[in-house]
Structure formats: structure tokens, C-alpha cells
Specification:
15 helices, ABC_transptr_permease_BtuC, two-stranded antiparallel ribbon, ABC transporter involved in vitamin B12 uptake, BtuC, ABC_BtuC-like
Length: 348
């Protein structure tokens, strides 16, 4: 059982199964969920045609005008729901890698799985010549999984050490970034522009047909990840301590890596690579809860950040819908500099 820090308050629920919930984590999650829901309502109201709360509620209930129902249910709701679910998925993926590597820089953005998904999508678009959403999504998923297998194979040597996983991942990420640039430079200008636009990471124009499959996959994997939280927290104490608690370390690590990779690849297949969420959301949630890695606060934080960034991308430049990746990359760069500066000061 994960050690309980002294001075913390827990809520105990006994109904067949004893469940203990950290009160601070529960409060942080509740606040983040409330803020995300408020932003979701704002997102359904915003646009070239502004709607009131009453009109949005009527459209969601199948009432109101046909135009309002089309705008809310068919155009805006898929975008808002994708931002929430995909943000949660990316954050949990980052929480898994950061916990396993015990390093705040251990996220899919840094390790290279996002670059692998981007490479797979570029291969589908530029080499295979696929222009369908299914083909691009399949390429992104295959690229992410293939990169994960390669990094895990190279990092495995009498077990997988977190630091070695990061070093190998950064090296593979650098190689894949160069390969991506080469693919773009050697392709036709029109196709390269389309691929580069996809690579910016955007929720613009997303529909139910594009997002439904990935939304279901990410939601299911979030539930599966919740079941792995205890082995993950035991592994944070070290391999020997985890084995003493009955955790099959390599098997659990492999399952967690697979979950984290698909949680990254599935959103990437729909909206392209979106940086910063997987890197920063788990760390911000960790600092707010002041506890061991927990998926619920991280997921709520990821949903809140991605939805906030998407709404900001729609409003920053009047008349222009910026890709959400531009906003998250800008904020993420500043956050990464802050982490490196803090670590440099602590090393002095």
C-alpha cells in the first residue's frame, strides 16, 4: 500500500470495498472539473454566431431551432468534447511516463512518441499517398507504437531504467524530427503544406466522424489506466520496494507504456501533435495536490489546459482560427525553460 504522508486528510468510503480518497486531490479535481465545464459551456456559446446558455441547453436537448442544433451539436460539441477527452488522455500519458522515469521531463513530447506518431502520419500522407482521415490516423497510431517498441527495445538492459529510457527517447526523437523535415522538403509543395498544417496540431473543423473512434479509445484507456495507479505508485518507490509489494515490475511497466503510447497516438491521429499538455499538466496537478502521482487531478488539469488553449486560439487573432498547437507550444516553451532553470538552481 502506498505510504500516507502525515498531516494529510483522507475520505474513507466503506461499501463492500474500502476506498480511501485524498481530500486535497479530490478538492483540486472538483475545482478543475467545474472550471472545465464552465469553459465547455463558453465554448458552445462562442463563435461567429453567439448563442445564449438557454439556446445551448435547448439545442443539447434536441429543442430550439434547427440552425442552433446544427451549430451546437454538429460543429461545436465535437470540438469541445475532443479538447476535454484528448487533453485528459495526453495528461495521463505524461503522468505515466513522468512517474516511471521519476523525472518531470519524462513525457511523450520529450521521449519521442509524439514525433513517432507524426512520422507515421507523414509517411501515410507523403509516401503512401493517403489523403483519407482513416489512413492518416492509422499511420499516426502505427508510427507511435513502432517508436515505442524501438525505444523500449534499445532502453531494455536487465530491466528498464527511467534515465536510460529518457536518453534513448531523446535520441530517437531527434532522429525522427530530422526525418520529418526531410520528408516535408522532398515532397510536393501542396502536399507538404497540408502535412505541415496537420503537424501544427489543430482542432479546427473537427467532426464526429473524425473524432468518435479516438474519443471512445481514449475514454476506455483512461479507465484502464486508473486500474494501474497502485502498481505505478509502488514503482515510484523503486523496483525493489515494488517487487516486495507483489508488483510484477516489467510486466506492469510494459502495460503502462502501451497505455501511455496509445493515449498519445490516438489524439495525435485526430488533431496532430499537440505539445506541452503531457509535459506540464501532470506537474501542475502534482504541485497543487502535493501528493504522489494521481491520474484524476492530472486528467482534469489536461482537459482544462487544452480546452483553455483552444478557446484562446479561436480568440487571439480576430477572424483567424489559430491551431491550438501554436498556443500550447508557446506556453510549453516557457514552462520548459522554467523547469530547466529551477533544476539548474537546485544543482548549485
Amino acid at each position: 500500500m502506498t505510504p500516507v504522508p502525515f498531516g494529510r486528510r483522507y475520505i474513507r468510503i466503506k461499501k463492500g470495498i474500502q476506498l480511501r480518497i485524498d481530500a486535497r486531490s479530490l478538492a483540486v479535481t472538483a475545482v478543475l472539473v467545474s472550471m472545465t465545464l464552465a469553459l465547455a459551456v463558453a465554448g458552445l456559446m462562442m463563435g461567429s454566431l453567439r448563442l445564449s446558455v438557454a439556446e445551448v441547453w435547448a439545442a443539447l436537448n434536441g429543442e430550439g431551432t434547427k440552425m442552433a442544433r446544427t451549430i451546437v451539436v454538429e460543429w461545436r460539441l465535437p470540438r469541445v468534447l475532443a479538447a476535454i477527452v484528448f487533453g485528459a488522455g495526453l495528461a495521463v500519458s505524461g503522468a505515466i511516463f513522468q512517474s516511471m522515469t521519476r523525472n518531470p521531463l519524462g513525457s511523450p513530447d520529450i521521449i519521442g512518441f509524439t514525433s513517432g506518431s507524426y512520422t507515421g502520419a507523414l509517411v501515410a500522407m507523403l509516401i503512401v499517398g493517403s489523403t483519407s482521415f482513416a489512413g492518416i490516423a492509422a499511420g499516426a497510431l502505427i508510427g507511435g507504437l513502432a517508436t515505442a517498441v524501438l525505444i523500449y527495445s534499445l532502453a531494455f538492459r536487465k530491466g528498464t531504467q527511467g534515465f536510460r529510457l529518457i536518453i534513448v527517447g531523446v535520441a530517437i526523437s531527434t532522429i525522427l524530427s530530422s526525418l520529418n523535415s526531410m520528408l516535408l522538403l522532398r515532397s510536393k509543395a501542396e502536399v507538404a503544406l497540408t502535412a505541415a498544417a496537420w503537424g501544427a496540431g489543430s482542432l479546427n473543423g473537427i467532426s464526429w466522424a473524425q473524432s468518435a473512434g479516438s474519443l471512445i479509445v481514449v475514454a476506455a484507456l483512461l479507465l484502464a489506466a486508473m486500474a494501474m495507479i497502485r502498481p505505478l505508485q509502488a514503482m515510484e518507490l523503486g523496483e525493489d520496494a515494488a517487487k516486495a509489494r507483489g508488483v510484477r515490475v516489467e510486466r506492469s511497466r510494459l502495460v503502462l507504456i502501451l497505455l501511455a503510447v496509445v493515449l498519445t497516438a490516438a489524439p495525435t491521429a485526430v488533431m496532430g501533435p499537440v505539445s506541452f499538455i503531457a509535459l506540464a499538466a501532470p506537474q501542475i496537478a502534482l504541485r497543487l495536490t502535493k501528493s504522489l502521482h494521481s491520474f484524476a487531478p492530472a486528467a482534469a488539469m489536461g482537459a482544462f489546459i487544452l480546452l483553455s488553449a483552444d478557446l484562446a486560439a479561436q480568440r487571439l487573432v480576430p477572424g483567424v482560427l489559430l491551431p491550438v498547437g501554436v498556443v500550447t507550444l508557446t506556453i510549453g516553451g516557457l514552462y520548459l525553460v522554467g523547469i530547466l532553470f529551477r533544476q539548474a538552481r537546485s544543482a548549485l
